[in-house]
Design brief:
By secondary structure, this protein is mainly β. It contains three helices and 19 strands. Pfam families: DUF4138.
C-alpha cells in the first residue's frame, strides 16, 4: 500500500513538471524583412538567444537587456526559428519566416493575455491602450489626408485604427518655421458639413480617453511630431464631419482638419499589433 502511494506521488509530480514546462514555452510566428527591424520585448532580462540559421540576424539592444532585435539577412529564406531564454526561467520559441514588408514589428511579451483587457472583458486596459498607441507610430501610415497648414505648420491625418472598441487617430504635425510650435489645447467635435444662416449650428464634443500629447506638446523648428489620440469608437452621418483643432500657445497658428465619415469606416484593425 505504501509503495502504491509513493508511485502515485511520483506520477503527480511528473505531470506537474510537464505542465509547468509546457507553460514556459511560447510558440509564436514572427515575420521579418530586409528593410525593417522586428523587436521582441520580454518581461525579464534575456539570458541567452539562439537562431536556427544564418538567414536572420539577432542581437540585444544596447542598454536594454529585455529586448531582442531580429532582421532578415537575405530574401525568401527557408523558415527558421529563434529560441530565447530569460532570467525568470522561461523559454520562448519562435518560428521566423520572410516577408517583403511587415505591418507588425513589435511583439511585446511583457503583457500577458490576462491583463490586455480590463476586468476580463473586451474593454482594453489603459496600459494596453498606451502600448498600442506607441506601436502605431512605427507602422506605415494608412492615410495622408485630410491636411491643412497655417504659418508654415502642417497637420495631416495619418491613419485611423481600431482595437478593443476604441478608435486610434494618428496625426502628424510638421513645423517648417523657425519658431517652435507649442500646443496649448485640442478640441474634437462633430458638426454639420454646411449650415444655413437660418439654422442653428449644433456641435457635439467628443472627449478622448488617451493621448500621447499629454507627455509631449512642443514641435521644434523644422521637426515633426506624431500624435495618437484615442476615443471610444463612433461613426458619423454623411451630412456631418469630425473636426479636429489644435491651438497654439501664445500664438495664432491654429490648426484644423475635418474628417469625413468614410475615413472612419476605413479604419484598420490593430488588435494584434502588440502581443
Amino acid at each position: 500500500m505504501k509503495s502504491v502511494k509513493v508511485l502515485c506521488c511520483w506520477v503527480c509530480l511528473l505531470f506537474t513538471c510537464l505542465k509547468t514546462y509546457s507553460q514556459e514555452v511560447f510558440p509564436k510566428e514572427v515575420k521579418v524583412c530586409l528593410s525593417k527591424t522586428t523587436l521582441l520585448v520580454f518581461p525579464a532580462n534575456i539570458k541567452n538567444a539562439d537562431r536556427g540559421s544564418a538567414s536572420i540576424e539577432i542581437g540585444e539592444i544596447s542598454k536594454v537587456s529585455n529586448v531582442l532585435r531580429i532582421k532578415a539577412s537575405e530574401e525568401n529564406f527557408i523558415p527558421t526559428n529563434v529560441s530565447v531564454f530569460t532570467d525568470d526561467g522561461r523559454i520562448y520559441s519562435f518560428n521566423v519566416s520572410y516577408t517583403s514588408d511587415i505591418f507588425k514589428n513589435i511583439y511585446d511579451f511583457a503583457v500577458s493575455d490576462a491583463n490586455q483587457y480590463a476586468d476580463g472583458g473586451l474593454e482594453l486596459s489603459q496600459k494596453r491602450v498606451r502600448q498600442i498607441a506607441g506601436a502605431i507610430q512605427y507602422i506605415s501610415p494608412t492615410s495622408r489626408k485630410p491636411m491643412s497648414s497655417n504659418g508654415n505648420v502642417t497637420i495631416r491625418l495619418k491613419g485611423v485604427y481600431l482595437a478593443g472598441g476604441k478608435m486610434f487617430f494618428r496625426f502628424g504635425i510638421h513645423n517648417g518655421s523657425a519658431i517652435p510650435f507649442d500646443v496649448d489645447f485640442c478640441k474634437f467635435f462633430i458638426a454639420d458639413r454646411t449650415r444655413s444662416k437660418r439654422t442653428s449650428h449644433m456641435e457635439k464634443e467628443i472627449l478622448s480617453t488617451y493621448s500621447n500629447l499629454d507627455s509631449m506638446n512642443a514641435v521644434p523648428p523644422d521637426a515633426d511630431l506624431e500624435i495618437v489620440t484615442v476615443f471610444e469608437k463612433f461613426t458619423i452621418a454623411d451630412g456631418k464631419k469630425f473636426h479636429v483643432e489644435f491651438f497654439e500657445k501664445s500664438g495664432d497658428r491654429h490648426l484644423k482638419i475635418s474628417i469625413k465619415g468614410k475615413h472612419l469606416l476605413k479604419c484598420k484593425p490593430v488588435d494584434n499589433l502588440v502581443n
